[in-house]
């Protein structure tokens, strides 16, 4: 049976990165929010193939047309699969969309709790985006004043008792509440900044990842079609909000007590960790995308392992160095965090047991850490099971 592929409309091609000797292009569609990153030669071939995928030509006819008109020799069926997995093709059934992008894979493992339609609060978002400089200045002034007051009062991190974070079960409840609020404001900051640069996302969704971990996410369709410095500003805005919330929470933790203080202590921890980790470029995060933009290295994480394999095969160029260094950093940091976590847990348990505590007392003293580890393990197992089930289907 012959296949007559037909491409969807509104596929754009824009320059993603430009170096002295190479240019990387972004081909995609804002509505489906999928993109592929290609060089000059690949761009010409893919655009030519998409142009001829009008629903009236077979693979062989497209192949002949490309050779006769443009002298382009490509594997049309291979490019067809690439376009298919990125959602660039039309289907008889409009609900049938096969996409293998990382964000889509993430969505497979999420259970949406509820979605906020941004058009209902559009005027507020637009107001904040128009007056963003004033908002940032106000945040900076608040942080400066609070930092000055705390420094003048000789208050630092050691003046607060952080132990309840590990021992008080209420901190788990506060963690869930604070995380949802903080991540929502993190994503809302992305939305406001995106509005400033002409990108208008439609929704913010609160979900459960792998039925366990609460999370909030927003899709910024068309993000790769704007200037690099604007993309960086959008990615960085979430961390700025979290660091602001962390500083404010720390100041409030010093003037409150009991459960209210525990709430703000939790807020300090959550926001500082979230803000720092969102800028940490080794794992997939805002900081990772900022790094790929600064280095002009698309698909940095996925391509890094391929470049390492090419190194052993003797295939290496000057661009490979960035990818190889990233791969080394990724593996090193991952092993470091795992070893630190195991080492800390072992030392804590040995210290508790060595001081005469029973096994249950040792566990109780670190119960929250163990709960988080269990949540992480359950989330990972659930993800693997769901991936296996989806694969079988």
Could you explain the architecture of this structure?
By secondary structure, this protein is mainly alpha-helical. The chain starts with 11 loop residues before the first strand and ends with a helix. It has 15 helices and six strands. The strands form two sheets. The chain has a three-stranded antiparallel β-sheet, covered by helices on one side. α13 packs across α14. The radius of gyration is 25 Å and the shape is globular.
**Going across the major beta sheet, what is the strand order?**
1-2-3
Largest sheet entry: 3 strands, antiparallel
Q: Calculate Rg over CA atoms.
A: 25 Å
The number of helices is 15
SSE order: EEEHHHHEHHHHEEHHHHHHH
- Tertiary shape: globular
Total number of beta strands: 6
Average of the residue pLDDT scores = 82
Share of residues in strands: 5-15%
Considering DSSP H and I runs of 4 or more, what fraction of the residues is helical?
55-70%
| Ends apart, CA distance between termini | 24 Å
Enumerate the spans where pLDDT stays under 50 for 5 or more consecutive residues. Answer: 92-103
């Amino acid at each position: 049976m012959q296949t007559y592929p037909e491409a969807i409309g509104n596929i754009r091609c824009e320059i993603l990165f430009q170096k002295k000797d190479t240019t990387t292009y972004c081909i995609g569609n804002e509505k489906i929010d999928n993109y592929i990153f290609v060089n000059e030669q690949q761009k010409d071939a893919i655009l030519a193939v998409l142009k001829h995928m009008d629903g009236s030509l077979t693979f062989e006819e497209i192949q002949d047309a490309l050779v006769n008109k443009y002298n382009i020799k490509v594997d049309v069926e291979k490019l067809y699969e690439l376009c298919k997995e990125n959602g660039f093709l039309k289907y008889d059934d409009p609900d049938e969309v096969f996409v293998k992008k990382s964000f889509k894979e993430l969505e497979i493992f999420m259970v949406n709790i509820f979605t906020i339609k941004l058009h209902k609060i559009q005027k507020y978002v637009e107001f904040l985006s128009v007056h963003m400089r004033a908002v940032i200045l106000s945040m900076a002034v608040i942080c400066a004043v609070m930092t000055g007051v705390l420094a003048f009062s000789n208050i630092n991190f050691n003046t607060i008792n952080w132990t309840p974070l590990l021992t008080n079960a209420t901190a788990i409840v506060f963690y869930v509440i604070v995380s949802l609020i903080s991540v929502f404001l993190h994503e809302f900051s992305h939305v406001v900044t995106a509005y400033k640069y002409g990108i208008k996302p439609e929704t913010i969704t609160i979900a459960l990842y792998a039925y366990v971990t609460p999370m909030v996410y927003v899709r910024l369709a068309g993000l790769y079609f704007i200037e690099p410095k604007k993309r960086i500003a959008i990615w960085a805005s979430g961390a700025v909000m979290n660091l602001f919330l962390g500083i404010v929470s720390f100041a409030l933790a010093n003037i409150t007590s009991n459960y209210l203080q525990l709430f703000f202590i939790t807020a300090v921890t959550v926001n500082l960790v979230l803000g720092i980790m969102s800028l940490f470029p080794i794992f997939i995060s805002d900081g990772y995308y900022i790094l790929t933009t600064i280095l002009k290295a698309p698909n940095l994480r996925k391509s890094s392992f391929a470049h390492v394999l090419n190194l052993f095969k003797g295939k290496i160029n000057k661009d490979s160095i960035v990818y190889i260094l990233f791969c080394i950093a990724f593996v090193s940091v991952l092993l470091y965090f795992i070893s630190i976590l195991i080492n800390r847990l072992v030392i804590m348990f040995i210290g508790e047991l060595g001081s005469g505590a029973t096994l249950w007392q040792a566990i109780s003293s670190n119960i929250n850490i163990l709960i988080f580890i269990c949540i992480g393990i359950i989330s990972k197992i659930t993800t693997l099971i769901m991936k296996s089930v989806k694969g079988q289907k």
